[in-house]
Design a protein that fits this description.
Blueprint (H helix, E strand, L loop, with lengths): L1 H15 L4 H10 L2 E4 L33 H13 L5 E6 L21 H10 L2 E5 L19 H25 L3 E5 L4 E2 L7 H15 L9 E6 L10 E2 L3 H11 L2 E5 L10 H8 L6 E5 L1 E3 L1 E5 L5 H12 L6 E5 L8 H20 L3 H9 L3 H11 L4 H12 L7 H11 L5
Parallel strand pairs: 1-2, 1-12, 2-3, 4-6, 6-8, 8-9, 9-12
Antiparallel strand pairs: 5-7, 10-11
Helix pairs in contact: 1-13, 2-10, 2-13, 3-10, 5-6, 8-9, 9-10, 11-12
The structure holds L-rhamnitol and zinc ion.
Length: 419
């Protein structure tokens, strides 16, 4: 009742600025957000259960209740999804293969190792996205994979890349929607290198070999490459830098992935979107994350960085040219809450952008009325946005406000055995 009343007032106020809140809610609910399976278990994956390698990218914290296997990861994802409004997908990494008949190394992976994921996704009525995994593996221990100087190691990883594209195509086939496949590699060096050129030249060759496989249907497996500035152990040199992948993606006609945490600490990414998309024919994949001083992958919140990204998309009418996936991991709080907070914040930022008075702002700009433009931007920050958000949640049949916390707490009590 309260939501209805407040929404009616808000709707009217937005309408006075020419904005249709019902249409914004509908559109915001339709844009898919891909939930990363690796928040549920702190990036550990399922290879470790087979006594092989295991361990992923650093997640800090030791809050109890980490998912310990496929069933638990999927149950946590399902619970989270039920508390989040709007279209969702699930993003699987290849080290989350379910080995029902024994461990297979990454150069031997096949679609059948992801059958449990595909069956589960079908049951949930959602689609999967996919990622080859080039990290947390003995053959990645010296910091190089696809750009390695040893051809044998390089070929191992090339084979992994090829196989993951086939798995992605199988997922697409099973779900009837394309599977977005993201390539991130950890390659780089802790300290100064004498030769920054050769690894990059080899990386071009390796990727060209992986993507040359014409038997993989491009409308099913949609490829992206993700750049990075630095990582733990690759502070001085990263082979796959932003410039490297911008140029690679453009010349090879694959998609680019921009992770919000993969740029200089004071750099934000919204300004880069138009520069990429004015050249790129392919979609741009966004890894929604929250860096704090470094690529710390904090849980995403509804902050200016996030709002600005979606405002750019809205103002450039680029919704159909983007793919959205989450990439954060926090082991210091309840992990379902991490999913829910981060995904709801992302959906919120979409709605916020869809309620932007973009048309009026551009009219002011065209007329040289820059004071009016700035004033309108400022005033819009205090519009009754919360009432529209609550209405969106209600429409999607999920709890509004902090009501979802009760569901999370009940689930936490049920899964207490994990502690
Ligand atoms: C790493 C990249 C990459 C990973 C996932 C697990 O810095 O952001 O996207 O987080 O692939
Ligand atoms: Zn990322």
């Amino acid at each position: 009742m309260n939501i209805e009343k407040q929404y009616a007032v808000a709707k009217d106020q937005y309408a006075q600025a020419g904005i249709d809140t019902d249409a914004a809610i509908e559109k915001a609910l339709r844009v898919p957000i891909s939930l990363h399976c690796w928040q549920a278990d702190d990036n550990v994956g399922f290879e470790a259960q087979c006594g092989v390698s295991g361990g992923g990218i650093l997640a800090t914290g030791n809050y109890p209740g980490r998912a310990r296997n496929g069933a638990e990861v999927r149950a946590d994802l399902a619970k989270s999804i039920s508390l989040i409004p709007g279209a969702q997908r699930v993003n699987v990494h290849s080290y989350y293969a379910d080995f029902t008949d024994g461990f297979m190394d990454r150069d031997r992976l096949e679609p059948k190792h992801f059958q449990t994921w595909m069956d589960w996704a079908k049951g949930q009525g959602i689609s999967l996205d996919f990622n080859p995994s080039f990290h947390a593996h003995p053959k990645a221990n010296d910091g190089f994979t696809l750009s390695h100087k040893d051809a044998e190691i390089r070929n191992f990883w090339i084979e992994h890349g090829k196989r993951t594209r086939k798995i992605a195509a199988a997922m697409a086939e099973s779900q009837g929607t394309p599977c977005n496949t993201n390539f991130w590699i950890p390659d780089g060096a802790k300290d100064l290198v004498a030769d920054s050129w050769s690894p990059r030249a080899r990386l071009i060759e390796s990727f060209d070999t992986i993507f040359a496989d014409q038997s993989v249907d491009a409308s099913k497996c949609v490829d992206f490459v993700e750049s990075k500035l630095f990582g733990i152990g690759s502070e001085e040199y990263v082979v796959g830098s932003a410039e490297f992948y911008s140029n690679y993606a453009l010349t090879r006609k694959v998609g680019l992935c921009m992770d919000m945490g993969h740029y200089h600490p004071t750099e934000t990414i919204h300004g880069k979107i138009s520069s990429q998309l004015l050249f790129q024919q392919k979609k741009l994949l966004l890894h929604v994350s929250r860096p704090i001083r470094w690529d710390s992958d904090h849980v995403v919140i509804f902050n200016d960085d996030l709002k600005n990204v979606f405002l750019e998309i809205q103002r450039g009418n680029a919704w159909d040219r983007m793919v959205f996936a989450l990439d954060f991991f926090d082991a210091s709080i309840n992990r379902i809450a991490a999913y829910v907070i981060g995904t709801r914040a992302t959906r919120k930022a979409m709605l916020y952008a869809l309620l932007d008075p973009s048309r009026l702002l551009k009219q002011y700009e065209d007329a040289g009325k820059n004071a009016q433009r700035l004033a309108l931007m400022e005033e819009f920050k205090t519009m009754p946005f919360g009432a529209v958000w609550d209405r969106l949640c209600e429409k999607a049949g999920v709890p509004a406000g902090t009501d979802w916390l009760a569901g999370m707490e009940a689930y936490e009590a049920e899964t207490i055995s994990r502690k």
